[in-house]
Amino acid sequence: MAFIGGIYAPNTPTLIGNLGVHHASTETALRALGQRLLGREKSLDALIVVSPHFVTGQGFGVVAQSQLRQIFDFYGFPPSFYDVHYAPPGAPEVAAKLVALSLDASIPVAVADEWGLDHGAWAPLIHLFPSADIPVVPLSICPELGNKTHEALGQQILLLAQDFDIALMATGSLVHRLDLWNRHLPSFPNEARQYLDMVEAAVLQGQWGPVWDIPVDLRNQAAPEGGELPLRVLAGALPSFQAQILAMEEEFAAASLTTVFFQPTI
Q: What is the pLDDT of residue 41?
């Protein structure tokens, strides 16, 4: 059994349908990474996905159904966006073990029966695993629990790999300035660009510390989706890693699309 690695991927609805922009580099990178993971000798038991659109209070939520319900949690898009169907299996045994490990570590976690697979998960998944044949375990963020508890949750995911072959994907945009959408600006604000560059430089160096040390005013100007929390879960599962940035794109001078694969080194 093994922890295969971590992924950070964008989840923008422009990966789902046509809004006048196309992200060929991102889509190609996700497809190639999926083929790389599927090309392993042994198939993944599950991909655990942390979406910033799955937010819970008082504790983390884990979706444990054997068949996941697709959630169209976006509004006002062309009808064709709602005709895109993605229905991978769930992984109840993996989800149950994650809940048990987390509770043993005094991390509040519960099964979220009323959730499913939101677009924060399935927008990249339709390119990563287009055949929808890899089991998926959706996992929430819980802002009130703070950074360290999200890292602790990531550590339980690493322990989970003693029993299963798993990978972890967190999604979002490091720059997520939706207030700038459709203002026809030439680029991001300088402070947001600095934040993006500093995060990408840190992960290429195999370090999380410099990400957390970025000045708060730069992070606030970038407004990363989910704050630092999706990255904190990755950090807990990947204390030592080598990172490859597979694609870097932008849209509408408002959001970044950065795709990263994290290879564990311990």
A: 63
For position 76, what pLDDT does the model report? Answer: 85
Q: At what angle do helices 24-38 and 119-128 cross, to 10 degrees?
A: 70
Q: What is the CATH number of domain 3-264?
A: 3.40.830.10
What are 136-148's pLDDT values in tens digits?
A: 999 999 999 999 9
Domain range list for the chain: 3-264
Spatial neighbors of 112 by CB under 8 A, at least 6 apart, are: 54, 56, 61, 62, 63, 138, 140
Given a contact cutoff of 8 angstroms between Cβ atoms, the answer to whether 217 and 191 are in contact is yes
The torsion defined by the Cα of 91, 96, 98 and 103, in degrees rounded to 10, comes to: 160
Provide the token pair at 266.
Answer: 């311990």
The model's pTM? 0.96
